Amino acid sequence: MNAPHDPSSVGAVKAQKSSFDAPLRLKGGAELPSYDIAYETYGELNATKSNAVLVCHALNASHHVAGFYEEDKSNIGWWDNLVGPGKPLDTQRFFVVGSNYIGSCFGSTGPASINPATGKPWGADFPVVTVEDWVEAQARLADRLGIERFAAVIGGSLGAMQALQWSLSYPERVRHSIVIAAAPRLTPQNIAFNEVARQAIMTDPDFHGGHYYDKGVVPTRGLRIARMIGHITYLSGEAMAEKFGRLLRRGVPGFDFDIDFEIESYLRYQGDKFSTYFDANTYLRITKALDYFDPAADFGGNLAAALARAKAAFMVVSFKSDWRFPPPRSRELVHALLDNRRIVSYLEIDAPGGHDAFLLEDPRYHKALAAYFANIEL
Amino acid sequence: MRADLDVIAHWVAPQARVLDLGCGDGRLLRHLWQERQAPGYGVEIDDAAVLECVENDVNVLQVDLESGLSLFADGSFDSVILSETLQTIHRTEFLMREMLRVGREVIVSFPNFGHWSARLQVAFGRMPVSETLPYEWYETPNVHHCTVADFEDLCRRLTVRIRERLVLHAGKPVTFLPNLLGSLAVYRCTAG
């Protein structure tokens, strides 16, 4: 479907990198003396620079939003079904920027990067970063790309938190904030899942307190389990039942501890795959970024007061089968925006995909985003 | 535009803050914004209608009216509109109270079940089907039909004050025997 000749694909793309020497003061108090941001762009920035859209990614994705790499054609961008010529986020009309957050393991400076002070990988010494820090870094990238104001900032899940934070950190620089499958803060239950994932990593004997790079090992077991836990929360019970049912791998119960059910096979496969490409220190940090995100915290828990400074128009989307960030969490956000009389639309899509539905191509969801983008004036 | 929407549009003051419940494709909101600079939000549950709202560039919130108006603060609107939707609501009283909570005034329109043609069809042993009641009994989304007299009874029960009433048939006002000759009723009400 996304073969090179596909006219709705942005085609072959190249990842770019921008280096910043001015230190970045982080919310946690630490300072990054210098850093790189990996990013990709699709489409052309227009003469008035009014057509830029920033796509923020979630937990395990990257700046590779759309298209494919010439040297690895099967490596298709994570939101390729949304971004491209004629797609809902139409690259013939918009200049789309995908940016990789600080602390990542996909190109931007992160725990596996070299700490200039020691000449060795940062490892455990890489600071804990927050959604606010990411927005700060993205703003500097925007400066460098000559984008004073984004037509829209869009993201799902953790990416949606960045889209929201953009409207708070830089109210004048965002015209539309598109917040999908989001929550204005995590519940204790969300944090609990994150903590189990972190404990899986940190109790892995190969973790070495986060300094495993120079030991030549990787806390594979921990990462694997962390990913398995994550996957359980991304899928709805309904989607899992639909996809796997109670199918037995070997046709009959084995009465042993090999794989019996298909769901076990799926989780093991996902865990194994993830542990080969994702960095454990990054995983720890992004789950912390999720846990700490709470714009209302500085306003006595009053989300409406926290959002008073936002000026963007909002499009909020939730999915009924998402139990990680279910619709009531998005409605909290909508409620707070309405209290501030902000321009806001809210869609509650009855899609079965669970939290991951934001990555899928539900026609109601994609048509609405297409219509929304089409109405953004350039 | 539909006859009742035309009446409603005239009743909404310029720059009024509007909430349109069951807003359909958002055409009233769009009209109110363009003609009266009245900003507003629509509430709609139907996927296709919600998409049309987004296409029409009006603020739409996809939530179920039956669960109330908890998204909206007390007194946050000048006018709350419920056009030809009342008869589809299960929790009628509850929604009326909610509308009066969030709005300074409420504007309600509904097909009048007291119209002579409906009465006649019932008299002949059939559920009415007409221009304002276009559904067969087995496919209708309507669950709570009422007449002009019934609605006014409910207003009294809820101590709702009727400020204005316009009963229509074929787009024209009906002043003589409105509950018999009118097929569509539009009310402007306030609390107490």
Keywords summarizing the entry:
heterodimer, A: 378 residues, two-stranded antiparallel sheet, 16 strands, globular, B: alpha/beta, eight-stranded mixed β-sheet, 7 helices, 32% helix
What would you note in describing this structure?
The complex is a heterodimer of chains A (about 375) and B (about 190). With about 375 residues, chain A is an alpha/beta fold. In chain A, the strands form five sheets. Chain A has an eight-stranded mixed beta sheet, sandwiched between helices. A two-stranded antiparallel sheet of chain A has the order 2-3. In chain A, helix 1 packs across helix 2 and helix 3 runs antiparallel to helix 7. The longest helix of chain A is centred in the last third of the chain and has 16 residues. The radius of gyration of chain A is 20 Å and the shape is globular. Chain B has about 190 residues and is an alpha/beta fold. Chain B has an eight-stranded mixed beta sheet, sandwiched between helices.
Write the layout of secondary structure elements.
The complex is a heterodimer of chains A (378) and B (192).
Chain A: E1 16-20, E2 24-25, E3 31-32, E4 35-42, E5 52-56, E6 68-69, E7 72-76, E8 83-84, E9 89-90, E10 95-99, E11 114-115, E12 120-121, H1 131-145, E13 152-156, H2 158-169, E14 176-180, H3 188-202, H4 220-234, H5 237-244, H6 262-277, H7 280-292, H8 303-307, E15 313-319, H9 327-339, E16 344-349, H10 363-374
Parallel strand pairs in A: 5-10, 5-13, 8-9, 13-14, 14-15, 15-16
Antiparallel strand pairs in A: 1-4, 2-3, 4-10, 6-7, 11-12
Chain B: H1 3-11, E1 18-21, H2 27-36, E2 40-43, H3 47-55, E3 59-61, E4 77-83, H4 92-102, E5 103-111, H5 116-123, H6 148-157, E6 160-169, E7 172-173, H7 178-181, E8 184-191
